[in-house]
Amino acid sequence: MTSLNVLISGAGVAGTTLAELLTRSGHRVTLVERAPTLRHTGYAVDFRGAAFDVLSELGILESVRRHDTKMTGTAILDRDGTQVDHLPAEAFAGELEVPKHVLNELLYALTVDHVEYRFGTSITSLTQTETEVTAELTDGTAATYDLVFGADGVYSKVRQLAFAPHSVALQHLGLSGAGFTMPNFLALDHSGLLRAVNGTAVYLFNSADPDRLTVSLSFGTPSGALDRLARADQEAATRTAFAGDTWHTPRLLEAMSEASDFYFSSNAQVHLDSWATGRIALLGDAGYCAAPAAGMGTSQALLGARSLARHLATADHAEAFARYEAELRPYVTENQTNGRSAAALFGGAQED
């Protein structure tokens, strides 16, 4: 098999997993990441079904298991904070859940010796012919590659350059929200609380750190425009959505402004007719995000990377890309259907 020179955009789960599997097949991989360093923030990630096979193949399954958050479940509360139902741990934590930074660090350690990482760098243009792709980068350099992969998330630059603008590829699910951590004033112990009222949802949980409470404040929005605004505007929108709410909400809103790990995002799905064009292909959230509320992003990233690597080991890129999409699209379609339902649970608009 001919060794390929490959460029991957995005050092998340999809990109690093693909990088590892491709180097095992003898390919040379350069991975560019917009962030200046490895990301150490984000919610916990969970694993379901066949994703365990990929972790095992990577050789990190037992290491991942050692960081299990051991969630016990989530209490469903009414407006007054009275429990009315209970969801098992699997509803939000899958079969295994770990802090996101743990998985990022394990994958980075697995790949750093044989993958060229270029942090603080992203792609500015892509030009392809039948035989190669030329990528220009933000650091002013340019190089040609046999294949380019976009694993750079919902707002993928690769997708924007080579496939479609965000306005075409993204389907907003009517839900946005702020996330952060604060002192665990409710003394939750590896458990969560979910309170949905009038198109808003408060989700609180404690997992890895007994002293910290992770807070998610979700509310209905007509678009994902808030994602592109400054933090002050995002906080203001969140306060407006929860104005007049009682329970612990005023305390949560106060903690939001003090949080050093504030995060804001909208639930959106990515829909494309094809995940490949010529020598460029997408994987993970960049190609087929099912929505964060679905809890399937990590599993889709792992399975997509493995599928691509396996098919590239036995076929040329055109055939490999076709097989990859045929294999994964039914799985993605099911997850996206579930993602719309999950977003509705948190106050978003469910669509057929």
Automatic annotation (TrEMBL):
Coiled coil: none annotated. InterPro entries: FAD-bd, FAD/NAD-bd_sf, FAD_aromatic-hydroxylase. Keywords: Monooxygenase, Oxidoreductase. Signal peptide: none annotated. Residues 5-331 form the FAD-binding domain. One of its GO terms (molecular function) is monooxygenase activity. This is FAD-dependent monooxygenase.
